[in-house]
């Protein structure tokens, strides 16, 4: 068969086209992550305002236990830290962020519940937390009933404080503020007597340098909160890979290091790393 002559310009164009196809182009990677690595970026949902768990620092970096866990998992999925795009996902929007495909996974104090499992799939759990009380270091509050007549703070929309009032201390004076930072500031000034939410969240605040030694957790374990990593419903491939990564993180003691690094200054008496699929009711 006789070959046609190809001009130099056409040959150059052909080479460029083949190169672009092979490399996938600048935008060829899956921005949400494919679950198998190799993409340009992976988008992971976290909280931006929870010290010790998910916090955006003033310099734009991110810190916290959830961040450390997600970074380890992403590495096992084939993504380096500089390939992670952290996306703020507020509690009310977590399920929507996954269903829309805004993020590949969410690690944001995301308690596994039957209601949520109907909408998303969960890897893990990777931490067992409990609802607790944070009080001043010299406080005489030791039991839930000690809150009768005391000012108890939680955030607007949370059921934590109301549960305490309904089930433990009916005479507690509930204070609902816009965020936990406001509750902590009130506790520090003496305007409030206690703050309630998950012990991991409370420990994260108490571990901050500006609060070091000022607060203590009562250790009441008022509820069980199984934190999982949320993925889009039906994404079994990513789910299984995340579970494998979590098991490896525990076996390599990287999980213990993350707990110590983020909660150590608060003397947080954490539960051992939970077994994958082991939900504590």
Structural account:
The structure is a single chain. The protein is an alpha/beta fold. The protein is 32% helix and 22% strand. The chain has helices spanning 8-23, 65-76, 94-100, 114-117, 160-167, 180-189, 199-206, 236-251, 254-263, and strands at 42-46, 49-50, 54-56, 62-63, 84-88, 105-106, 120-129, 131-136, 151-155, 173-177, 194-198, 215-217, 225-232. A 5-stranded mixed β-sheet has the order 5-1-6-13-7. β9 (151-155), α5 and β10 form a beta-alpha-beta unit. α2 (65-76) packs across α8 (236-251). The chain is globular and about 55 Å long. The N and C termini lie far apart (75 Å).
Mean pLDDT: 88
Low-confidence stretches: 1-30
Q: Tell me what portion of residues adopts beta-strand conformation.
A: 15-25%
Cα Rg: 23 Å
Kindly report the spatial arrangement of strands forming the biggest sheet.
5-1-6-13-7
The structural class is: alpha/beta
Helicity range: 25-40%
Number of strands: 13
Distance between the termini: 75 Å
Q: Main sheet?
A: 5 strands, mixed
Give the overall shape: globular
Tally of contiguous helical segments: 9
Spell the H/E element sequence.
HEEEEHEHEHEEEHEHEHEEHH
């Amino acid at each position: 068969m006789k070959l046609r002559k190809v001009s130099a310009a056409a040959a150059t164009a052909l080479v460029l086209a083949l190169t672009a196809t092979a490399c996938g182009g600048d935008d060829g990677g899956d921005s949400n992550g494919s679950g198998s690595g190799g993409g340009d970026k992976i988008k992971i949902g976290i909280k931006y305002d929870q010290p010790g768990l998910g916090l955006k620092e003033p310099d734009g970096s991110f810190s916290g236990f959830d961040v450390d866990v997600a970074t380890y998992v992403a590495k096992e999925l084939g993504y380096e830290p500089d390939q992670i795009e952290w996306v703020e996902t507020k509690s009310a929007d977590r399920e929507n962020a996954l269903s829309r495909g805004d993020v590949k996974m969410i690690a944001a104090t995301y308690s596994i519940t039957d209601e949520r499992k109907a909408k998303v799939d969960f890897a893990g759990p990777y931490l067992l937390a409990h609802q607790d009380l944070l009080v001043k270091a010299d406080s005489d509050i030791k039991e839930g009933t000690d809150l009768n007549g005391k000012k108890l703070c939680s955030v607007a929309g949370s059921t934590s404080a109301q549960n305490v009032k309904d089930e433990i201390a009916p005479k507690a004076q509930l204070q609902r503020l816009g965020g936990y930072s406001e509750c902590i500031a009130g506790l520090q000034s003496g305007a409030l007597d206690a703050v309630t939410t998950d012990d991991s969240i409370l420990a994260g605040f108490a571990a901050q340098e500006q609060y070091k030694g000022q607060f203590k957790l009562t250790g009441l374990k008022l509820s069980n909160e199984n934190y999982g990593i949320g993925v889009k419903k039906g994404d079994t491939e990513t789910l299984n890979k995340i579970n494998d990564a979590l098991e490896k993180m525990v076996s390599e003691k990287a999980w213990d290091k993350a707990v110590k690094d983020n909660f150590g200054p608060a003397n947080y008496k954490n539960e051992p790393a939970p077994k994958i699929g082991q939900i504590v009711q």
